[in-house]
Design goal:
Elements: E1 6-9, E2 12-15, E3 30-36, E4 39-44, E5 50-55, H1 61-72, H2 77-85, H3 96-104, E6 117-122, E7 130-135, E8 151-153, E9 156-161, E10 167-169, E11 173-175, E12 180-181, E13 192-195, H4 203-215, H5 219-229, E14 233-241, E15 244-251, E16 258-259, H6 260-263, H7 265-279, E17 284-287, H8 299-312, E18 316-320, H9 324-332, H10 336-339, E19 342-349, E20 355-361, H11 362-371
Parallel strand pairs: 5-18, 5-19, 13-17, 17-18
Antiparallel strand pairs: 1-2, 3-4, 3-6, 6-7, 7-9, 8-11, 9-10, 11-12, 14-15, 15-16, 19-20
Length: 380
């Protein structure tokens, strides 16, 4: 099938990536995490193209997404971004040691910084990489209180190893006044994208990706997906607001176009996820609480688009959800072949309070939905 044409998925269509032909490439196959947040040791084998994570509040769903996302990064700034996604303030004050303990200490299981963190990803390409985080002895951090215009490396070390075995040190440093700096990334990293439970996608980034589709003359097919699903939208286009490009929607009953961000955070989040997949083949996409912001009647269409984009661009998805309705919508649009590319991971706290992961196939998910079983975990 021509990758420049529409690729069918069920009764809907999605836009294939220009010049890219799907190879069925699966990307991350196995994950092993040690001493990261709530996980003392977690090993996941045989990841699929669509990996759905369920579990009670506090079971470790977000921590699992963060850990894998962190390993795909090449800079410790990702850890700070994850903190901000969780609602922490990005500003710090105090000594360099107090700041670094506040920033990195809670990454370690039970706050035990004597045991290093490791996140090891297995695969066939550049996504096969590892992250190692450790803390040195207390006396290895140079005091900065009386040193001007000098810097010292943080007591915490962040080392990434790529698929070829090359190591890259992404550890931060502190300058006078406890200002923190991060080394420039020295790797050509795989395309990876993280959508927190509250993030809806940056307007400028979305406009840039939409522009890529437009330059390739594929935006019309993309727009038609949304126009069909939301008939009150007539068109999508890029307009400049105070010097910044923003995607605008033309509505049937409005004289002026309106920024999409002002219309619906749910639609904007949906658009953001699909745009990164349409413009970046072989991407790894993480979405925490995939159901957020989208009305239930659009869930089946959204799943058709996700499945089609993931297949045609060889993208891999890691999605958390609290919604049986969302999983039922997935099963409703999935046939036998699609089910082979789906995995359900359920996280539960055992009697000692430690998270345990149970893996199920797409067929198991379908059988559970049809039987009416509670698949999300918890105490039900």
């Amino acid at each position: 099938m021509d990758a420049n044409k529409l690729i069918n998925c069920g009764t809907e269509s999605a836009v294939a990536h220009e010049g890219y032909r799907s190879t069925g490439y699966k990307m991350i196959s196995d994950i092993e995490i040690r001493n990261y947040k709530c996980f003392e040791h977690l090993k996941i084998e045989n990841c699929r193209r669509i990996n759905i994570i369920v579990g009670d509040n506090g079971a470790g769903k977000t921590a699992l997404l963060e850990a894998v996302f962190f390993a795909l990064a090449g800079n410790a700034q990702i850890g700070l971004r994850n903190r901000q996604y969780r609602g922490f303030d990005g500003a710090f004050s105090g000594s360099a040691r107090a700041i670094e303990d506040a920033m990195w200490g809670d990454l370690f299981h039970n706050f035990n910084t004597n045991k290093p963190i490791s996140v090891i990803l297995s695969g066939k390409g550049p996504e096969a990489r590892s992250l190692f985080i450790s803390k040195g002895q207390a006396n290895t951090l140079i005091s900065l209180e009386n040193i001007d215009a000098k810097s010292a490396r943080s007591n915490f070390r962040f080392i990434w190893k790529d698929h070829a075995g090359n190591e890259f040190d992404g550890s931060p440093s502190f300058a006078a006044g406890a200002a923190i700096s991060f080394p420039a990334e020295r790797e050509h990293l795989p395309d990876f994208f993280y959508f927190s439970s509250t993030s809806i996608g940056g307007a400028t980034e979305n406009a840039g990706r939409f522009s890529e589709l437009s330059k390739a003359r594929r935006q019309r097919q993309f727009v038609e997906l949304f126009v069909k699903e939301y008939p009150w939208i007539e068109d999508l286009s890029i307009e400049v607001v105070a010097g910044q490009p923003v995607i605008h929607a033309t509505l049937h009953d409005m004289q002026e176009k309106i920024p999409l961000n002002n219309i619906s955070s749910g639609i904007n989040r949906l658009l953001s996820i699909l745009l990164v997949m349409a413009s970046h083949p072989r991407s790894v996409v993480f979405v925490d609480e995939i159901e957020n912001g989208l009305y239930h009647k659009h869930q089946q269409s959204f799943w058709r688009w996700l499945l089609s984009f993931a297949s045609t661009s060889d993208s891999q998805l890691f999605l958390s959800t609290h919604s049986n309705e969302w999983m039922s919508a997935l099963i409703a649009v999935s046939d036998g072949d699609v089910l082979q590319n789906i995995a359900l991971w359920r996280l539960e706290r055992n009697e000692k309070g430690q998270p345990e992961l149970f893996q199920f196939s797409g067929d198991d998910l379908k059988a559970g939905i049809e039987y009416g079983a509670e698949l999300r975990g918890g105490s039900e």
